[in-house]
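Course exercise 7: structure representation. Students receive a sequence record and must write out the corresponding structure in C-alpha cell form. The form below is the worked example handed out in class, using Major facilitator superfamily (MFS) profile domain-containing protein (524 residues). Read each field label carefully; the graders check that inputs and outputs are placed in the correct fields and that the protein name is recorded exactly as given.

STUDENT ID: A-19
EXERCISE PROTEIN: Major facilitator superfamily (MFS) profile domain-containing protein
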Amino acid sequence: MNSLHSVSVAIVSTHCHPIRKLLSFYKAKTKTKPHNLICSFRHPSNRLLVSALKRDSPDDEGPEKLPLRQNAASFDSGWLPAFPHVLVASMSNFIFGYHIGVMNGPIVSIARELGFEGNTFIEGLVVSIFIAGAFIGSISSGSLVDKLGCRLTFQIDSIPLILGAIISAQAHSLNEIIGGRFLVGLGIGVNTVLVPIYISEVAPTKYRGALGSLCQIGTCLGIITSLILGIPSENDLHWWRTMLYIASIPGILVAIGMQFTVDSPRWLCKAGRINDAKTVICELWGASEVDSAIEEFQSVSKDDSGDSDSRWSEILEKPHSRVAFIGGALFVLQQFAGINGVLYFSSLTFQEVGVESSALASLFVGLTNFAGALCALYLIDREGRQKLLIGSYLGMAISMFLVSSAIICPLDERLSNNLSILGTIMYIFSFAIGAGPVTGIIISELSSTRTRGKIMGFSFSTHWVCNFVVGLFFLELVEKFGVAPIYASFGAVSLSAATFSYYFIVETKGRSLEEIERSLNVKA
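STUDENT ANSWER:
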C-alpha cells in the first residue's frame, strides 16, 4: 500500500514550502514567531491548516498587518487517498479502450494471414464476437460482485483478459482468433460493470464524480494507445500479433495492482466484516468519518433479508425497478444516439477534407474524445450529473443536425466538408463530456447497495445488445437511406435523451450513496 501512496506524499511535500516562506516573511516583518503550524491531511477537510500567529507582547502591534488567507495556503487533498485505488481500477477501462481500437487497422492483415480475406461476414464476426462475450460477462458480473467483492473479482477477471490476448496473438486459425476475442470480451464485460461500482463505493462523496470520470479517460487513453501502436501494421503484416501480446500487459498489471488496493467498505459491511470496513474508511476518508459512515451503511441495510446476496427478481420490485428502468433506458438512448456510427464514418469525413490517413483521422477523433473526458472530470462535481447529461445530448443533437444540413443542402462543397468536420468534432466532444462518462456513474449512484451489482449488470448487458444491433444494421440503413437521414435520426434520439434526462434523472452531486438510496425509497 505504501507504494500506491508515494505519489500522494510527493505532492504533499511540494505544498509545505510556500507556507514556510510565508511564515518567515511574516516573522521578519512583525518580529513575532508562529505559535503553531499544522499540516493536516485528515478528512473530511483535508486542508493544510495554518494557525493564528501569537505575538510576544500585546503592546507590540508591529509596523503592518499581513493577514494570512487560508485559501492561499490550502491544498484540497481529499481525493488523494482513494486515487491510487481508483487508478488501478481505471486501468481496466484502458484495456477496454485498447481492445476497441486494436482491430481498427490490423483486421486486414489478420484476414490475409488466417485465410478469410475478402469475407466481410467473417471479418465482422472476428470483431463482433467480442460483444457476445461482453454481454455474457456483464450479465454474470452482478452475482460475482455480490459473492466475492470487487477486488477479488477484478483479479479473477484478469484471467480471460490475459489468456484471450495471448491466444489471439498466437492464433493460426479462424477458431483460435475467435476464441481469443470471445475470452477478451468476457473479461471486458465484467470490467465495464466492476469499475463504476468500485469507484462509486470507495471514492469520497465530494470527489465521486471526478474520480468516476477516470473510467472514460482510461478508455480514451486505451483507444489512443492502440491507434498509435497500430501505425506500423500498415507496413508490417505480422505486427498485429505484437499488438495483441501487448494487450495482455495491462491485464497483468491490474491483477497485481489489485493486490495492493482495498475492498469496497460498503461490500465489507454488507458481508459482515465491520472491522475491515472501518479500517478502509479510516484509510480513504479519515478517522472522523468511520462511525458516521458505518451508521449510514447499516441504516440502509437494516430492512434487508439476512442473505447478503440479492436476487435477480429484486430489480423488478420497487424502488429497484425504477433504477433498472433508468439504467436500461439511458444505455438504449446512448447507443441509438449513434456514437459508434459517427465514429465509423469519422475517418471517411476526414478523408473528404484531405486527411488521407485513416489512422491519423482516428487519432484526432481519439484526442477529441480525451479532451471532452478531461472537461467532464472538471465539471461533473461542479455542475452535476443531470446538467452534463442534458447539455451533452443537446450538443450531440445540434451536431447531427448540422452535419445532416451540410449534406442535404450543400451551398459550397468546401463549406459543406468543413461543416461536416465541425459537426463530427462537436458530436464526439459533446458525447465525451456527458453521455459517455456520466451514464455509468449515475446508474451506479442511483442503485442500492444490495442490488447495485445486478442493476449494473442488467444495464450494461442492455448496452452490449444495443451496440450489436446498431453495428449490425447501421451500414445497411446508410446504403438504403443515405447518411443524412440516419444522422438526423441520431439527432432526434439525442433530443429524446436530453428530455429523458430532464424528467427522470435524479441529481446525485454531493450526496452520499446512502442518502440517495433513502430518498429513492421514500419516493417509492
